Amino acid sequence: MTNEFSKSKKMYDEAKEYIAGGISSQIRINDPAKIPMFFSHAKGSKMWDVDGNEYIDYIQGMGPNLFGHAPDFISDLVKKEMDRGYVLAGQFDKEIEIAKMALELIPIKNATARFAISGTEIDQLLFRVMRGYTKKNKIVKFEGHYHGWMDSVNYSVHPPLNLAGDENNPNPIPESTGMDLNTSKNLIICEWNDEEKIENVFNKYGDDIAGVITEPILGNTNCILPKKGYLEKVKILCEKHNALLAFDEVITGFRVAAGGAQELLKITPHIATYAKSMAGGFPMSMIVGEKQIMEEIGNGNVYHGGSFNSNVMSTAATYATLKYLHDSKATFYENLNKKGEFMMKNLKSVSKSQDSDLHVQGVGSLLSISFTNKEEITNWRDHAKNCDEKKYSLFAYEMLKNGIRLSSNGRMHISSAHSQEDLEKTISSTEKVLSKI
Ligand SMILES: Cc1ncc(COP(=O)(O)O)c(C=O)c1O
Question: 275 CB less than 6 Å from ligand 1?
Answer without folding.
Answer: yes
